[in-house]
Specification:
The chain is of the alpha+beta class. Helix content is 31%, strand content 30%.
């Protein structure tokens, strides 16, 4: 099993993580290709050797967009750094499924933390530093690098937390930054008596989403060591993130459980209405099996009835279950409880690996005194998506198939809504044109997937 150990003794940030992964063997052309798939062909990684201080050198990373530092760039559609815009750009990209989902996981975790800090809905989150193009490049680059190195498990040292204040778009804020501190829930941290931001929100999100264990360097056979250098110099030691790539002696050679993408908040739909949203993490479970042309997954449903919880708190609980407990679905319905009181039946669907975390969130974020769990088996169609051209713009089609038979075809609602609003036409016209574009390609309910053109099948399987 391939292990990645992150020695965060001097902290972690997005650029430090990306620099360390590059030293572990992630090629720059792989990153450049990913940025092109994201829709930024002019975004480039500049990696250079730099002194981290105290006699240690490593790779320092900057991102350039059209020849200038990407921090200053404002490409079309991302001028304001809104989470919704970034999410839609990622969803519409040609990135491979695993790094696409991991990038959504990372941004989704930050969005949930920022929403809690500022007291707004997750879809109203406006990123500042994290919304800049260089930070987008860091996060996508890390996701691509983790996928390229085929990591099975990430182990991390405790994160150092400095003191003092730092400047932000909202003025001076205490350290650790509020969003960073929220992101460290469930993460091992240690206080450091130095006025410095050792861990950025991006760095905290990387650890929260990826790390499964915390502690000293685990037993492994070391294959590579990478140093990612930060921008500023430290007094206490070199400003460097050390990444150690190796094979676990306990399960060396037992492959097939590498990091794979799962859904995250809003990865298929709006975060506040997603029926498939899950946060990401390193997974040990195998891919769903197939029975009679259907994907089969073993899941758990958690149920509880509530009659004394504020309606304002349900949305917050749902967002945290999606982002942190990797929930597949969260729903509730009105019921009548004892003494005729109106109540709410809350249900959560998640995989076996994340039951404990989901259970803990329900107890900590709701007023329940108990809950029920039921193991269930889910059967689902194999899903694909494809962008088609309509008179009103590009719209993605989502299709589900059982074996070779296409059973459902539906335009992506958010794509259709944007096109309808931009062209000032009824949304049903956009839906009709998207269906017509699909039929012209042979994509419709009842069609055979195997009879589609080979290049079309390749697009469907890649998107």
């Amino acid at each position: 099993m391939t292990l990645l150990y992150l020695d965060c003794s001097s902290g972690i940030a997005g650029d430090m993580a990306l620099g360390a992964l590059i030293e572990l063997g992630v090629p720059l052309d792989v990153l450049d290709a990913a940025f092109e798939q994201l829709g930024f062909p002019d975004l480039r990684v500049v990696a250079e050797k730099r002194d981290a201080g105290h006699g240690i050198t490593g790779t320092h990373v900057t991102l350039q967009y059209k020849g200038e530092h990407a921090e200053k760039a404002a490409p079309d559609g991302l001028e304001h750094g809104h989470w919704v815009d970034i999410r839609e750009r990622l969803q519409a990209s040609r990135l491979a499924p695993k790094p696409k989902q991991l990038a959504l996981d990372l941004f989704g975790a930050i969005a949930v933390a920022e929403a809690e800090v500022h007291g707004v809905a997750v879809d109203d989150v406006h990123f500042h530093e994290v919304g800049a193009l260089d930070s987008i490049g860091d996060i996508v680059g890390v996701a691509v690098g983790i996928d390229y190195l085929d990591i099975d498990e990430v182990v991390c040292s405790p994160l150092p937390m400095g003191r003092g204040f730092t400047s932000s778009m909202h003025g001076r804020i205490p350290l650790p930054a509020p969003a960073t501190l929220l992101l460290t829930k469930g993460v091992a941290i240690v206080g450091v008596d130095e006025e410095f931001e050792f861990v950025t929100p991006t760095g905290a999100a990387i650890v929260k989403v990826l790390a499964r264990r915390f502690g000293p360097l685990p037993t492994m056979t070391v294959k590579e060591v990478g140093h990612g250098v930060g921008t500023k110099k430290l007094q206490r030691g070199p400003n460097v993130l050390r990444a150690v790539l190796g094979e676990s002696g306990a399960s060396a050679g037992a492959r097939g459980s590498s990091l794979r993408a799962t859904s995250v908040p809003g990865s298929e739909r709006n975060l506040n209405a997603s029926a498939e949203a899950r946060g990401g993490s390193v997974r040990d479970s195998s891919e769903p099996s197939t029975i009679d042309g259907l994907l089969v997954s073993d899941l758990v449903e958690l149920h509880t009835n509530l009659d004394d919880m504020s309606p304002e708190h349900f949305g917050h609980l749902r967002d945290r279950l999606f982002a942190l407990a990797k929930a597949n679905d969260v729903w509730w319905s009105g019921i009548t409880m004892k003494d005729g009181r109106p109540g709410v039946a809350l249900s959560v669907l998640c995989d076996l690996e994340h039951v404990e975390l989901a259970r803990g969130l329900i107890f900590s974020e709701s007023t329940t005194l108990g809950l029920r769990e039921t193991k269930v088996r889910r059967f689902s169609l194999q899903r694909h998506s494809l962008s088609v051209t309509t008179p009103f713009g590009e719209v993605r089609l989502k299709l589900g198939r059982r074996g070779s038979l296409i059973l459902t075809v539906a335009p992506e609602y958010q794509d259709a809504r944007r096109a309808a609003e931009a062209q000032d036409v009824p949304i049903k016209r956009v839906f009709d044109e998207a269906h017509a574009a699909g039929r012209a390609l042979g994509i419709y309910a009842g069609a055979s997937f195997d009879e589609l053109a080979p290049e079309l099948v390749a697009r469907l399987e890649s998107e």
